[in-house]
Amino acid sequence: MAQKKLNVALIGYKFMGKAHSQAWRTVGRFFDLDAEPVMKAVCGRDEAAVAEFARRWGWETSSTDWREVIGQKDVDVVDISTPGYTHDEIAIAAAEAGKHVFCEKPLCFTVAQAKAMLAAVRKAGVKHMVNFNYRRCPAVALAKKMIDSGAIGQIRHARFTYLQDWLVDPQFPMNWRMRAEAAGSGAHGDLGAHSIDLARYLVGEIGEVVGMQKTFVTERPAEGTSHGISATAGEGTEKVTVDDASVFLAKFTGGAIGTFEATRMAPGRKNFNRFELNGSKGTLVWCFEDLNYLDYYSTEDPGDRQGFRRIIATEGVHPYAGAWWPPGHMMGYDHTFSNAAADLVQCIANDKSCSPCFQDGAQCVAVLEAVDKSIDGGKWAQVEVIK
Amino acid sequence: MAQKKLNVALIGYKFMGKAHSQAWRTVGRFFDLDAEPVMKAVCGRDEAAVAEFARRWGWETSSTDWREVIGQKDVDVVDISTPGYTHDEIAIAAAEAGKHVFCEKPLCFTVAQAKAMLAAVRKAGVKHMVNFNYRRCPAVALAKKMIDSGAIGQIRHARFTYLQDWLVDPQFPMNWRMRAEAAGSGAHGDLGAHSIDLARYLVGEIGEVVGMQKTFVTERPAEGTSHGISATAGEGTEKVTVDDASVFLAKFTGGAIGTFEATRMAPGRKNFNRFELNGSKGTLVWCFEDLNYLDYYSTEDPGDRQGFRRIIATEGVHPYAGAWWPPGHMMGYDHTFSNAAADLVQCIANDKSCSPCFQDGAQCVAVLEAVDKSIDGGKWAQVEVIK
Amino acid sequence: MAQKKLNVALIGYKFMGKAHSQAWRTVGRFFDLDAEPVMKAVCGRDEAAVAEFARRWGWETSSTDWREVIGQKDVDVVDISTPGYTHDEIAIAAAEAGKHVFCEKPLCFTVAQAKAMLAAVRKAGVKHMVNFNYRRCPAVALAKKMIDSGAIGQIRHARFTYLQDWLVDPQFPMNWRMRAEAAGSGAHGDLGAHSIDLARYLVGEIGEVVGMQKTFVTERPAEGTSHGISATAGEGTEKVTVDDASVFLAKFTGGAIGTFEATRMAPGRKNFNRFELNGSKGTLVWCFEDLNYLDYYSTEDPGDRQGFRRIIATEGVHPYAGAWWPPGHMMGYDHTFSNAAADLVQCIANDKSCSPCFQDGAQCVAVLEAVDKSIDGGKWAQVEVIK
Amino acid sequence: MAQKKLNVALIGYKFMGKAHSQAWRTVGRFFDLDAEPVMKAVCGRDEAAVAEFARRWGWETSSTDWREVIGQKDVDVVDISTPGYTHDEIAIAAAEAGKHVFCEKPLCFTVAQAKAMLAAVRKAGVKHMVNFNYRRCPAVALAKKMIDSGAIGQIRHARFTYLQDWLVDPQFPMNWRMRAEAAGSGAHGDLGAHSIDLARYLVGEIGEVVGMQKTFVTERPAEGTSHGISATAGEGTEKVTVDDASVFLAKFTGGAIGTFEATRMAPGRKNFNRFELNGSKGTLVWCFEDLNYLDYYSTEDPGDRQGFRRIIATEGVHPYAGAWWPPGHMMGYDHTFSNAAADLVQCIANDKSCSPCFQDGAQCVAVLEAVDKSIDGGKWAQVEVIK
Q: For residue A125, what pLDDT is reported?
């Protein structure tokens, strides 16, 4: 185990806070890292709850004041697991305090925010990474490696769908994810952001988009308020102010064309984050609901033996997989977070750039924003290029 | 076997002519029909070839003059299996001669043509049907029946892809399907038309669309000429004048939103005609590459036992299947043509309207045309309503 | 179309008679044969029914006397589609009359019968073929070709299951397939025979077996009598005298080991005729419920790109497929019969041996009989070698 | 978090030691337990290596003397993760020291050993559990629940395969798992034991068996010695003294019939631990390579909507899943160990019997031994009933 320590402060302790905590506890057990992460501090609004969380997960201290935690000398990395509307303020403050920043996706809600965040981390010279965790599935990292090696030639079609079904029931009550103030958007920024990031990672930059969005259930039973943002409910119901579904067409600058679809209204699709890429020499298909598999078709196989090859990406030769278990011993959701943590630690310990960085996060926001613009205008919109 | 006879004349004897001939030979063997189809005449350009075709398939006579054949008194049904650019002239002539018309898809290339064809068959009072054969897969007909019974509630998402790969190789030579004069369009009218028809059948009318198209390989080795239309080749290559891929977003008038993608550039996808429909109570998924299966998810199954149900639609209780084999004895491509022929014969014999009729074919052309218009304008386009 | 004619007489006109008739009608349309089969005569017990069958399917004449039909000078091939207990008598008579014999599986019920049949066709010098139709699925024929080329190395494991579910309901009434006199055995000879034939075709000879059988539902509602064999029913029910399920282990003479399971009691399995073969260099998997696919794994693929390759065996390069449709246009159950008819016609026209021949059919019976013997003795039994 | 502590001592620190350590670190984070496990001590042969392991995984102390560790007053549970040949001695000593015992599978090699172990834990009155971890996949636990509720009626067919491929290459070198002294048997006890345990859990007791085994590669490159047992290698190779594959038929005492196949020689099968159970009312299928899914067919679904239902067992309503992530957030291999640890802790904290206990482990060994006996005798063998 590494002698060098890397002290981490986690801001936020709900779903993502739990996932990040499990990653920090686990990463050093499986990976041989050049620095050992230390779970220094966790921060949240509710003093008793965050203290109990710290005790359960092994954080050394807990706090309700994120500015104080960021100011601690013994904190090296600030890990932001809070809802998206808080990301820019915390990240900029962390950068200004000279801390490396690990930020949940989406980076933020607007290109303007994103530019400010990017400027802050660049000015501070700190490491910055956005947690698009699906890049860290072994099968996805393998896809990237294969594409870079020319396995499927030049990509022509990119087909992304991210389907869930937790809002199908109109009686499912409101929560912060359905309020524009807290969540920015609905399926668009929550799910679509993942697809856009994978598309940029695997295919390249998107130049133009045209889209549409829909809110199928426009009012839901009220939940009250959450995250400090008031609800607009009356008579026991509350108006949904984000999209249930977001769909768009894309033209990649490299010549490929793409379709993107994100929804929370697809019965039976639990976390159906899927892509299919058709290139001039082959095809790659991946879906999170079978996360350990990558389907690959090559036009270079012998004529009568061509077929989709279902690769179980759990062998020692596959990215990340060697750190875990013997072949065929499947990985789950949380492994992607540990893999991300491993990459982050190694980049910091060896003074290398992280990927995806805040520029990636900002470019993703630019695509999301262009889709919104295309909807407002009823026509194709250019994607701003974030330098 | 029925006493009543129905004399069929087939125009065209290539791929579709073969498929239709097999259907006419087969349909009366498996189905108990109210009229027995008789393979009266087949018509094509090449006298010797069409004569040999007639002999092989059991057509009583052959001819090179389609107007003459249509004029024969003993012909009841004209079956048009020629390329799309000839459909309108033949169909209108057939109607004027008082013959029932069975026409391959797409009905024609323009809304103007479609209206003329529709007017002709209506004026003549003959039966008219377009051969969107995928409606005749038992699993697709079952989907229709289930949707009508409310199995998936109100449809919110329609996701259609029709992917093939036969043009991936840039050395694959030109043929008539890549020339605008003969084929009208590429993947758009060839594959997209099927998806649009299934969408109208299963979901409802499309009100607005926005799309894009792409020709990835713009020149191909010349083939010469075919179907009487001159090639534009020079120096051994010929310019491709149709799309390789066509993609569009759609707003259905009933509130659903849709994505459509047709391409001949998806390695490994041979005839991947697939749809997924997400409703307020469930999901249905079908793909021709597994044509005998229908996947069904219901939110009304018990909470811990919900899952996609893979229905093998080959039981006696399923549409069409009872006419064929015992359960589990799979059906193939040609069965869809026999099923269509059975429906056509029964409609004519019992003086009922056929489905899909020329109005359906015309409305499909209207959607295709609206997509073209949206591409020209770079923005959403309204779909003309064909009455 | 070929000038030479081959006159066929079909004995039996139920499920198999229908399948064979469709094959004879169809084969010359798709295949370029060296002789054209002519549907000369069909024979069955019920005069009116068989006459109607002849009219519907296009047989020139019908008869109730199979000996007379066999005696006709203008019959070249006798096609036996009757229940198994009649095969030996008809086949021997046909051979003695100098006719080529095409016989449904299983060849017969006992090794003694099989030897007599084999002696008769050899003495007569006629062609003889058993209709193990699953050999004629393009994907299965491709598997054979790949095995012969060494694609999976030396086979070590052979795993055969043939699962159906039509007897799950104890209220499903008796029919001849559940009576030992008419059917010989239950799942064992009906389904197991197919698996054994595929095993011999793909893997090699079986030397020793040990098995077990079970009848889960021992009495069923009576149906009366059928096929001239009296029922043993009393009080409205009848005793089932065959197995519902038959399972055995096998040692192949070439060193592989095998498991075989046939049942009619597997809910959801409609015609689940599946094999998996593990060799020293790869694996092949096929199942009739996805009949157009062959799954192939090769240890010779690059280490990080190994996976089961799902070959759609419908391309022109695949066995049989070129005679039918373009790539991806799926085949069904009946195509296997047409493919078999094509092979038979070509063997007769060109004076070549058929495969599988009566020796193959006999050796299959020998394996079935050895399993019975192993059950009687409660221990491993040797399989008799039929020369 | 619970006030009550439960001190654990782990014996063994290789593959299983790592899996158990991850479980002990993780279980209290996700589950609300009635006692908090404390990682007190770890024990292994190599002093430096085990000390480093303790530091990495968070064990308080390390030792090379397992007897000493077992004797520690502050140890409540002894967790045995060593190779099978050591289990009996350690477990009996632990029981005699009054410790609860958690033992990796297989419990031991012989029925005689198993009886001694069972007697020891019973005499000591301690809790005892065998780590058949696949029972702890949510999908498998769901299968158990469904079977108990009658979802598939009376089970008739049990079809178990456990296929791996890590020994396909004859150049793969020897290790302790291929030596009879250390491993007892090969695929039989390693993989077959898992299948037998799942069969007993889901179907019931096995009364009679008949089997066969095979070693396809009889000599391998020598590795030297390991686990203190001398190798028998000469000339750089070593004789393999266990089976590569083990196959048997089974008669369950409840009337079902079963097939079992375990092998390390199936190319492409990485950890293909699969079962299919056919009952009088339905079917259940599970495979570890898709561990989060359970396939379910019910004959009680409406006739035209029957199909295999693919349940993603990751919802809050499914066993164990509620403790982890939101729906669709897949679980992997290590989660099964955490789930087992949770069950063990709750049983100890609440003074309840564990399952599977040593009696279960012993009965599993009795089945393994009966298969060996059937092979020796070439005939069916009775399974001894362990009381």
A: 98
Q: Are residues B142 and B259 in the same domain?
A: yes
Same domain, yes or no: B40 and B162: no
pLDDT class of B253 with cuts at 50, 70, 90: very high
Nearest C-alpha in D relative to B316: D304
Quick one: what percent of chain D has pLDDT higher than 70? 97
Domain that holds residue B302: 138-290+292-331+362-377
Same domain, D126 and D157: no
CB contact under 8 Å between A157 and B378, yes or no, is no
- Of the partner residues C214, C278, C298, the one whose CB lies closest to the CB of residue D265: C278
User: CATH code at C79?
Assistant: 3.40.50.720
Mean pLDDT throughout A41-47? 97
Nearest CB to D271 within list A56, A329, A335: A329
What's the rounded mean pLDDT across residues A335-347? 98
Strand ordering across the sheet containing C5-11: C61-63, C36-43, C5-11, C77-80, C100-104, C128-131
Among residues 268-297 of chain C, which lie with CB inside 8 Å of chain D?
Answer: 268-269, 276, 278-283, 297
Q: Does residue D93 have a pLDDT over 90?
A: yes
pLDDT score recorded for residue C233: 47
Share of chain B above pLDDT 90, in %: 94
What is the gyration radius of the CA atoms in chain B, in angstroms? 21
Q: Are residues D37 and D105 in the same domain?
A: yes
Q: Best mutation site among C154, C157, C163 for testing chain D: the one with the most D CBs within 10 Å?
A: C157
Establish if C146 belongs to a structural domain.
yes
Residue C354 lies in a domain: no
Q: Does any CB of chain A come closer than 8 Å to the CB of residue C66?
A: no
Quick check: C267 and D247 CB within 8 A?
no
- Subunits that touch chain A (at least 3 Cβ pairs < 8 angstroms)? B, C, D
Domain C-terminal end among A81, A103, A133: A133
Specify if C343 maps to a domain: no
Q: Identify from C317, C334, C337 which residue to disrupt to test chain B contact, counting B C-beta atoms within 10 A and taking the largest count.
A: C334
Indicate the number of domains in chain A: 2
My answer on whether D14 and D148 are in the same domain is no
As a whole number of Å, the end-to-end CA separation of chain A is 38
Nearest C-alpha of chain B: how many angstroms from C353?
27
- The three-state secondary structure class of C364 is helix
Mean pLDDT of A55-77: 97
Mean pLDDT of chain D: 95
Tokens for A29, please give them. Answer: 């057990």
Regarding whether C223 and C88 lie in a shared domain, the answer is no
* Best residue of D25, D334, D336 to probe chain A, by most A CBs closer than 10 Å: D334
pLDDT at B202: 98
Q: Cα–Cα distance between C355 and C339 in angstroms, integer?
A: 13
CATH code for position B304: 3.30.360.10
If asked whether residues A26 and A73 sit together in one domain, one would say: yes
Q: Do the chains contact at B214 and A282, CB–CB below 8 Å?
A: no
Q: What is the DSSP string of B179-224?
A: -HHHHSSSHIIIIIHHHHHHHHHHT--EEEEEEEEE-S--EEE---
- Nearest-Cα distance to chain B for C170, in Å, is 18
B234 lies within 8 A of chain A by CB: no
Q: What is the pLDDT of residue B228?
A: 47
Which of C95, C104, C83, C13 is closest to C364 using CA atoms?
Answer: C104
Considering only B325-334, C251-260, C336-345, which range has the smallest mean pLDDT? B325-334
- Structural domain contains residue D277: yes
Interchain CB contact of B314 with C (< 8 Å): yes
For residue D228, pLDDT beyond 50: no
How close does chain B come to C358, measured CA to CA in Å?
26
Helical segments of chain A, H only: 15-30, 47-57, 66-71, 87-96, 111-124, 138-148, 180-183, 187, 193-202, 333-349, 358-377
C259: contact with B, CB 8 A cutoff: no
CA-based nearest residue in chain C for residue B52: C1
Q: Secondary structure of D313-340 in the HEC alphabet?
A: CCCCCCCCHHHCCCCCCCCCHHHHHHHH
Confidence of residue C177 (pLDDT cuts 50, 70, 90): very high
ipTM of the complex: 0.95
